[in-house]
Design goal:
Length: 160
């Protein structure tokens, strides 16, 4: 089987296009982003058929959630002309694996009970901080991906 090139979709002035290619065997994959030298190595825990030599897709998506939130918060802070000096994130999430591993017909394959505690080092007032984190949640693509998928997601923001 040969890999056919992806068609290029029209891109507007504000649209960012991403193109990735992967290769792998079993559950191991190497994912490359076009135009970058970075490689994402993906594996899974033995219970999912992997060797646990690299992060799993679940770790990457949850890590992406908190990473994207930090990047978005910095963009929002820049727009609001405030300074955010440091971040700490603690995330917990539950995933019912009955559909993924067992092939169940009923259930919810989404992450549930996603809770993220975020501590931000800043000297802004509580009111300004609240506006900043509400705007961050509104603008963060991966937060919105989780939220719109039906995942129960709860962010707890606090100032250090």
């Amino acid at each position: 089987m040969s890999i056919q090139p992806m068609t290029t979709m029209p891109v507007s002035a504000t649209m960012a296009a991403f193109r990735l290619h992967s290769k792998g065997t079993g559950v191991y994959q190497e994912v490359r982003t076009e135009g970058s030298d970075h490689v994402i190595y993906v594996d899974a825990a033995p219970v999912f058929g992997g060797n646990d030599e690299h992060p799993s897709p679940m770790s990457y998506i949850l890590g992406s959630l908190i990473s994207c939130s930090q990047v978005t918060a910095q963009l929002v802070a820049k727009d609001m002309e405030i300074e955010l000096n440091g971040f700490e994130f603690d995330l917990t999430a539950n995933l019912d694996t009955d559909i993924l591993c067992g092939g169940a017909i009923e259930g919810d394959p989404n992450f549930q009970d996603v809770e993220v505690n975020i501590v931000v080092e800043t000297d802004v007032s509580k009111d300004v901080f609240k506006k900043m984190y509400e705007e961050t949640e509104r603008r963060c693509p991966i937060y919105q991906l989780f939220s719109k998928s039906g995942s129960s997601i709860n962010y707890n923001w606090s100032i250090k």
